[in-house]
Amino acid sequence: MKIKRFTNSLLTRLVLVGIAIIVSTAIARYYFLVNFLETDQNIVAAERQGTIAGYLAQDIGYHIEERRSFLERLAAQMPPALLHDQAAAREWLRERYELQPLLAQHLFVADNTGSIVVDYPAMKNRSTLSLASDPDYKHALTGTAVIGEPLLSPASETPALTILVPVKDAGGKVTGVLGGINELNAPGFLTQLQRGRLGPSGGYQLISPARRLVITANDPLLVLTPLPAMGADPMLDRALTGFRGNGVGPNASGVDEIKGFASVPGTDWFVTASLPLASALPAVSRMRHMVTRGGLIQGAVIFLIIALAYLWFFRPLRRAADLADKMTRGEIPLSPLPVVRRDEVGYLTMAFNGLLARLKLHQSELQHQAHHDVLTGLPNRMMLAERMQQALARALFEQNGIALLFLDLDGFKPINDSLGHKAGDLVLQEVARRLRQVARHSDTLARVGGDEFVLLATDLGAPLENGARALAEKCIATVSEPLVLGQKEYQLGVSIGIAVCDGRCDADSLLQAADQAMYSAKASGRGCYVIAPAGMGCSHAIVNAPAGTGKTNRPAGSAHS
Ligand SMILES: Nc1nc2c(ncn2[C@@H]2O[C@H](COP(=O)(O)OP(=O)(O)OP(=O)(O)O)[C@@H](O)[C@H]2O)c(=O)[nH]1
């Protein structure tokens, strides 16, 4: 029952609606804000990756170009005779190498047959190598510098990049090739890329598309490793076919990354700078936490405020409903509900109070109708009974008496029958008016039948019969006064039965005694009163003829004797 009341409660529904609004707006705000931030931050992070890749590619291009031009300057200075003088050539190389050891970790000279003439620093087995079938060597013999593909140096067994430049005689004819071997891990060469760090999990790679190879990377484990198979890393696949720029996509492990691609000048290589999406957008993830936490706190606060406000708004309504409920169950009397505030609840309460006032008025009208005669407005038999109870109790308490006069009109039927019911009603109303004037304020005049009235007289002093007699005479006199109906005068009479009591009798027997006495008066010739005998009601019986009527007054019990 309580649960049903709770679920049906307007308050519960309003609070639920409030919560729904809070939650939906919080979700919408969270969704739009985070989406907006994510998109924005993605663009910024992707552009940053592109910029970093571009910077690293430029740096690598610069270092390669530096080494190539160093070798070209050496080749241009090299005396042609050295190709045939190994000792002099070694000395010449040594001098140059020591001047600039960083730009090539190994130098060698090959003649135009592919045989290594000399190398510095000398390495075991290198002099036995032949470059005759090496495509880069062949290319260099055509007169242009060649930047070879990186590989594990057979001599040093470390990853290395070989740059070959042609050696020409005075006539410009290529007579040999000067080679410089650059170890990829040599200081100052690819250091920027190898030592670079981009967050805890970002990475840089120098890629050779021709060999689908990672030339070098900031992760040493990736150096000279093959690229993932086609399809595993869609963005890398695009870069291998020439795309340069930035974007977001999954890597070979399925982790979304922000990547930037940039070409290394002077080569067909490119640099990738990649960063996992999750670590690329720390602001977004912080914002996510902040918005979630803020939303929860805000929701809780708003919920509390709404709940308290609703409780406060609806408290008068619930109090009014409880009071109305108690009134309905009869636990408290019908009374106006308190109007606490002049708001909707206040107006509703005022409207209820108005309805209650109408109800009470209606109720009192019904009460009046239940206790009064509609035609004359006099109390009816029911109210007479109540008044008699009260009067008897008071008479007993105050040790005085009451008299009950039962009046039945004489000659009413002929008027009623000849002039009609409406005229009869007017006669009854007129009789009521006249009798009301005779009765005292404390007396009760009731209409108990068609032309029957009862007058309950209280506060009578002893002997009770004297007061009753005087009252009956006044009644006979006032009813007997001529009645003008239309153009004609009519005369009515009244027969009265009187029963008196000092409080020690019951209402029904008193009424019955008066009724019987009235019949005695009728039997005695009408227009007179009879006091019920002492055995009937409670007092002695006397039959009286009103003064001036000329009728005989006889005791009821012995009137006809
Ligand atoms: N107009 C009218 N007539 C009523 C009403 N109630 C009863 N009557 C009539 O009142 C008459 C009463 O009859 P009776 O008591 O015999 O009339 P009566 O001529 O006084 O005769 P007695 O009482 O025997 O002296 C009847 O004709 C009823 O129809 C009423 O409310 N209005």
From TrEMBL:
CDD domains for this protein: GGDEF, HAMP, PDC1_HK_sensor, PDC2_HK_sensor
Entry keyword Nucleotidyltransferase: yes
InterPro entries: DGC-Regulatory_Protein (IPR052163), GGDEF_dom (IPR000160), HAMP_dom (IPR003660), Nucleotide_cyclase (IPR029787), Rev_trsase/Diguanyl_cyclase (IPR043128), Sensor-like_sf (IPR029151)
Domain spans labelled HAMP: 311-364
SUPFAM superfamilies per record: HAMP domain-like, Nucleotide cyclase, Sensory domain-like
Key words, A-Z: Membrane, Nucleotidyltransferase, Transferase, Transmembrane, Transmembrane helix
PROSITE patterns: GGDEF, HAMP
Enzyme class of the recorded protein, top EC level: transferase
Record field: transmembrane: 12-32, 295-313
Protein name as catalogued: Diguanylate cyclase domain-containing protein
Organism in which the protein naturally occurs: Herbaspirillum chlorophenolicum
